[in-house]
Specification:
By secondary structure, the protein is α/β, with parallel strands linked by helices. It has a single domain, classed as Acetylglutamate kinase-like (Carbamate kinase), CATH 3.40.1160.10. Helix content is 37%, strand content 19%. The strands form two sheets. The protein has a nine-stranded mixed β-sheet, with helices on both faces. Strands 7-8 form a two-stranded antiparallel sheet. Helix 2 crosses helix 3 and helix 5 packs parallel to helix 7. The longest helix is centred in the middle third of the chain and has 24 residues. It is globular and about 50 Å long. The chain starts with 6 loop residues before the first strand and ends with a strand.
Length: 236
């Protein structure tokens, strides 16, 4: 297969790991995601992975009324570590070599994030899972994905969702919603499409990193994306 992208950053939401409910863990979904990553690795693609924590805890939004934003965000960052360990286990059971790197040091279970070390792991064919966001409150895992994609020199940031692209309105609520095949960064911001948060969009724009939004429910979608076939919505 001729590949368009050979180093990617795959952003997986926590809700995706929760399956239809978006909560907890749907292990069949997680196994399917791991299989797709293995297929990409077999083609020689270097894969970095950022995972959210929304299936466990969504920052201060999941906390009690009045919870301090910093406390909620720290809890959310730790939730991403739990998800990352789950993904790491699923990938390694398929025979893949992985490294888990966290923005918050917890050396007994993960390596601290160091850019040069991450780059070396990727060049050696290891799947690198980046957890704990940026390590700072007030920044989403979308922004963490944009940051890591830039640092590791990813050729594309692929956002894996339950929806097959970006629509002009919520397709779950509007049957006549229209899917975009291609958008510019400016259009995403001007239309307030909320594909990712504005900071992440602006970061990718400034660093020339295209964003590809696609559904992972079809097990062939990631391979189609790597080959550069029209799929999902490309923001560039």
């Amino acid at each position: 297969m001729d590949l368009k992208y050979r180093r990617i950053l795959l952003k997986v939401s926590g809700e995706l790991l929760g399956g239809k409910s978006g909560q907890g863990f749907d292990y069949a979904v997680i196994a399917g995601l791991a299989e797709q990553v293995r297929s990409a690795c077999r083609l020689g693609v270097q894969v970095g992975l950022v995972v959210g924590g929304g299936n466990i805890f969504r920052g201060s939004k999941s906390g009690p009324p009045g919870m301090e934003r910093v406390a909620g965000d720290h809890m959310g960052m730790l939730a991403t570590v739990i998800n990352a360990i789950c993904l790491q286990d699923a990938l390694e059971r398929l025979g893949l070599e992985t490294r888990l790197m966290t923005a918050i040091e917890m050396r007994s279970i993960a390596e601290p994030y160091i850019k040069r070390r991450a780059d070396r792991h990727l060049r050696m064919g290891r799947v690198v899972i980046f957890a704990a966001g940026t390590g700072n409150p007030f920044f989403t895992t979308d922004t963490a994905a944009a940051l890591r994609a830039s640092e590791i020199g990813a050729e594309v940031l692929i956002k894996a969702t339950k929806v097959d692209g970006v629509y002009d309105r919520d397709p779950a609520l509007h049957k006549n919603a229209v899917r975009f095949e291609r958008l510019t960064f400016q259009e995403v911001l001007a239309r307030d499409l909320r594909v990712m948060d504005a900071t992440a969009i602006a970061f990718c724009k400034d660093n020339g990193i295209p964003i590809l939004v696609l559904s992972m429910e079809n097990e062939e979608n990631l391979l189609h994306a790597l080959a550069g076939r029209p799929i999902g919505t490309l923001i560039a």
